[in-house]
Please model this.
Amino acid sequence: MSESYDFLFKFLVIGSAGTGKSCILHQFIENKFKQDSNHTIGVEFGSKVVNVGGKSVKLQIWDTAGQERFRSVTRSYYRGAAGALLVYDITSRETYNALTNWLTDARTLASPNIVIILVGNKKDLEAEREVTFLEASRFAQENELMFLETSALTGENIEETFLKCARNILTKIESGELDPERMGSGIQYGDSSLRRLQQREQQRQKKGICDC
Ligand SMILES: Nc1nc2c(ncn2[C@@H]2O[C@H](COP(=O)(O)OP(=O)(O)OP(=O)(O)O)[C@@H](O)[C@H]2O)c(=O)[nH]1
Model:
């Protein structure tokens, strides 16, 4: 069955190994916690259509391996991504310290305009927390990132993370800051949008004929 949607956005999920990227994607798509998550080899893929501000948006999501040995493979998937979830584990300072490198990769390899949301995962493990909410919020602010803490285990803020990122991209399209027709924007018009654009163009042409 063909799906109808207004836009398609390409998303990446990046961050160090073991931060919970695959579990976040699984929770978002299947609405349940992936019990037996193994390290991702290369990349995995998922997609879901969501409603954002009255528009239907298909999210095409690439979940990348965090392990260094897959870095050359995963980097080749960055190109033309419209949005990214940059994930660290709130119980691991090491994964937080690695954020700057991941961020540089995303902005140089995907696009300087990529919309990124910083995600502090494993919020359910409060007793083991090594990174405070405040310091991560400051990092987000300094680097122009949105920010949420999530739990792929309980599902807290998982859907909101994807929606927040998609909403931000949509706002930028509407304000003209992002152009879906630019090569490598990571955005495509879906059937519904194309039909609407065609109708608008036909009306514009009709008006042009009447005007002269
Ligand atoms: N308590 C808790 N554990 C989590 C959460 N998310 C993931 N985990 C656990 O963290 C481990 C790593 O999760 P993955 O989703 O495989 O991590 P990943 O970031 O995809 O790892 P790579 O594929 O190696 O990059 C697993 O043992 C998960 O069960 C969470 O929100 N809370």
Notes: The CA atoms of residues 122 and 151 lie 5 Å apart.
